[in-house]
Amino acid sequence: MASDLDLTDSHSGSEKHLGHGHVRPDGSRPGDDVRVGATARRVVVVLALLCALGSAVGVALLWPPAGTLTTLREQVASGGSVVTDVEARAESLQQQTCPGTSLDRLPDGTIPASASCPILTATVLQGPSKGQQVQVPVPAQVAEGGITPGDRVDLGYFPPTPGYDATWQWVDFSRTRPLGLAVGAFALLTVLVARKRGLAALGGMVLAGAVLAFFMIPALLAGKPPLLVSVTGCTAIMSVVLYLTHGFSLRTAAAHLGTVSGLVLVGVAAHVAVGATHLQGLSDEDSAYLGQLTSMATLRGLVVAGIVLAGVGVLNDVTITQASAVWEVREHAPGASFTTLVRSGMRVGRDHLASTVYTVAFAYAGAALPVLVILAVTDPRWIDAVSSSALAEEIVRTAIGGACVALSVPITTAVAAAAVASASVQRPAAGGAPESHDHAAHPVRDHGTPPPSPLGRRAQRAAEQRARRRHP
Q1: Whole-angstrom Cα distance, residue 328 to residue 325?
Q2: Global pTM?
């Protein structure tokens, strides 16, 4: 029975942490003493290799035609939609008044006779116009937020055309430097704290960005099937990132299989849900502008791909945790059966799933907070609020992500339990020689007999070396 498993440390009596981040003092990880049988090892490795190979073949078959983005850029440029962003330095802000327009409409619906029209004087810092001072109108809301001399801003430059002079317009504040500092601090702290694993995780993020930029986005814009593109691209990312971050092991392979299963479920569910709810991806001005540049089919495909991509990180965390939990349960209970391993692993999985679900919900609620505020102010009926495009998209993303994560927990637990159900546990004996605990010869321990504290493989090797020096 799962309740018979003793998962306490024999020295401290404290409960063991069954997560993937737990490391023993000797540097080993929970479950390192579990020895999986040859048959189970081959099955898990072959299935994981098939997933990785399948994703590589899928990427090759779905690879977009050369020049997809270049062709789209040329089409946008021919329509006069391209604006060159140029960095400038704010010099002064002058408050002026001008006749009110519909953009200045007051909360009661009236249009004021006059409105504030701030004018910014800025010095261009790059390009052919470097050093030139220009004046551009600034939105009143931006000016109210504050623009001080010396602020770096981005201005849009429209080159001269027949009958029209070159013009400048306000774009936004230039955030390159503070964003660079924030990203640099994040990367530095990640490496300092997590060391090699942190560096590997950063490398995985770079790889994910490359797959997204060079494969997924061009393929979606080229009209490739969004379901296949998103699932294939995310599977290719995880087939590398999982092993790069967590190392090559059967635990990682089991988590890999669970992650791929979850990605397939997320992709199919997203494809069905987007069609059933008629989500067009027109929830904001940017997506509406993108719809003018491409097609509505491409826009719907981006919604599907966005839902799949959002579920990758959550799936990775859950599956790795479940695989590690099952391995550690096996290490502490060499006689546990497949059913016992599944039940014990699911106890960890239920707690993790519960926290993950509301974490995902809060993350999406934070992203949609401006929409929620607008809905609260306008006070519509709640059914209308839920049915709005912006909110419905977040609800679908949360529901699908949570449901598929819930299904990935038992799938990963079952895969990991099947892999270690017949495994043996090897621990070093008192004299330094490895001691094998076969599950058939040693039944599950009860609470009255705590298991010996596992030393891990590093400590085992050190003990063997000391034994050889004593008895050459």
Answers
A1: 5
A2: 0.69
